[in-house]
Amino acid sequence: MKHMSRKENNAQHNKEVKDQVEENLNDAIEEVEQLDDQENEQAEESAEASQEEKLKQDLEKEKDKFLRLFAEFENYKRRTSKERLELFKTANQEVLTAMLPVMDDFDRAMNELKKSADKDLLQGVGLIHNKLRETLKNKGLERMTVEQGDAFDSEIHEAVTQIPAPSDKLKGKIVDVIEPGYKLGERIIRYPKVVTGQ
Q1: Of 121, 138, 180, 183, which residue is least crowded by CB atoms under 10 Å?
Q2: Is 197 exposed, middle or buried (0-12, 13-18, 19+ CB in 10 A)?
Q3: What's residue 6's pLDDT?
Q4: What is the DSSP string of 99-125?
Q5: At what angle do helices 119-138 and 6-115 cross, to 10 degrees?
Q6: What percent of the chain has pLDDT over 90?
Q7: Residue 14's pLDDT is what?
């Protein structure tokens, strides 16, 4: 075996150290490059994520605007439909209210004709009377049923006068109906005029 001289030994050792340093340096450079690549990828992913998040937010804003607009449109349709219906009802109410005195006159005429002996006349006028009543009923007009002995209710009856009750059963009750009341749908358009007993 040959013995290496100290110089050669040092050169060999220096070469090994140099190789080791170069290898460590290359590893460090490679590690830094990998870290740079990872940071770049993360930055790109972050940029993509923030772009995607921005698009999602924009989409949500547009969706919210659309839903609000749609709700406003539905409310508008409902409101105009209701107003149109109210307009028809009001127009109908005016015509029907104007017809009530005609119905009252017909009722009085029928009562007088019942007293006469002319049955053909009574039957003919009765047919016209029924036709008018049915026509008005089909338009929503309904006569309120109020009879003698019914309890007086100030919400739905109009007391014209009070008289001494003919019997104890009629005290505080309706004694007579002077003018019938009428409803249009659920709304009272003319309150029945009554006489109450005291």
Answers
A1: 138
A2: buried
A3: 66
A4: HHHHHHHHHHHHHHHHHSS-HHHHHHH
A5: 170
A6: 42
A7: 73
- Residue 170 per-residue DSSP state: G
69's tokens: 């607009």
Could you give the domains of the chain? 141-198 (2.30.22.10)
- HSE-CB of 44 using CA atoms within 13 angstroms: 6
DSSP codes, 68-85: HHHHHHHHHHHHHHHHHH
- Distance, in Å, from the CA atom of 4 to the CA atom of 15, rounded to the nearest integer, reads 15
What are residue 57's DSSP bridge partners?
none
Spatial strand order in the sheet of 141-143: 141-143, 182-184, 187-190
Tens of pLDDT, residues 50-95? 888 899 999 999 999 999 999 999 999 999 998 888 777 667 788 8
Cβ neighbour number for residue 12 with a 10 Å cutoff: 11
The residues that bridge with 176 in the sheet, in sequence order, are 195
pLDDT in tens, 114-163: 888 888 898 999 999 999 999 999 888 999 999 988 889 889 999 999 99
| Residue 25 one-letter amino acid | L
Residue 137 dihedral angles phi and psi, to the nearest 5°: -65, -40
